[in-house]
Write a structure and sequence with these properties.
Structural class: alpha/beta
Radius of gyration: 16 Å
Bound molecules: 4'-phosphopantetheine
Shape: globular
Number of helices: 6
CATH topology: Rossmann fold
Strand order of the largest sheet: 3-2-1-4-5
Number of strands: 5
Strand content: 15-25%
Helix content: 40-55%
Largest sheet: 5 strands, parallel
Number of domains: 1
Order of helices and strands: EHEHEHEHEHH
Length: 162
């Protein structure tokens, strides 16, 4: 039986930590659908279209990985695309409480979908999209923390030279 995993998130923007998890997921499951939440409460820096474009660019050489958007309940989307696994990353213990709450609620909503937690490489354990945006907005370097396309897009957003 082939196992499809969905890796959901806001990806505003995708970081090297996300990419590390996508790679790990692709090595574990038959195919991985990276799913960008389109109707988030948060006010994103990048539009959904921009996030899709950046993600598609960074996964273009990875086999069995696709990028899409979703709205509504994550488990509903997972069932719709026949994904039996939700992948979420855990960087530190502080992530665990929120992730456990979501995983158990998702399990209550659908018994067909199992959440799997993966740890990124420790180099990325302190990395987040929020910090990347903050550093970049204040003129700091995010080199090595995000893929090259994201670094360029961040500079463009902030009117900096690449
Ligand atoms: O990258 P994020 O912002 O931590 O991702 C959060 C995400 C998109 C996985 C979560 O907000 C989500 O699943 N939203 C979809 C709506 C939903 O299913 N809510 C119930 C969760 S128990």
């Amino acid at each position: 039986m082939k196992i499809r995993a969905v890796y959901p998130g806001t990806f505003d923007p995708v970081t090297n930590g996300h990419l590390d998890l996508i790679r790990r997921s692709a090595a574990l499951f038959d195919d991985v659908v990276v799913a960008i939440l389109s109707n988030t409460d948060k006010t994103p820096m990048f539009t959904v279209e921009e996030r899709v474009e950046m993600l598609q660019n960074v996964v273009k050489n990875l086999q069995h990985v696709s990028v899409t958007t979703f709205g509504g309940l994550l488990v509903g989307f997972a069932e719709q695309i026949n994904a039996s696994v939700i992948v979420r990353g855990i960087r530190a213990v502080s992530d665990y409480e929120y992730e456990l709450q979501m995983a158990l609620m998702n399990r209550r909503l659908s018994a067909k979908v199992e959440t799997v937690f993966l740890m990124p490489a420790e180099t990325y354990s302190y990395l987040s999209s929020r910090l990347v945006k903050e550093i970049s907005a204040l003129g700091g370097s995010v080199h090595g923390l995000v893929p090259a396309i994201v670094e360029r897009r961040l500079k463009r957003k902030h009117g900096q030279r690449s």
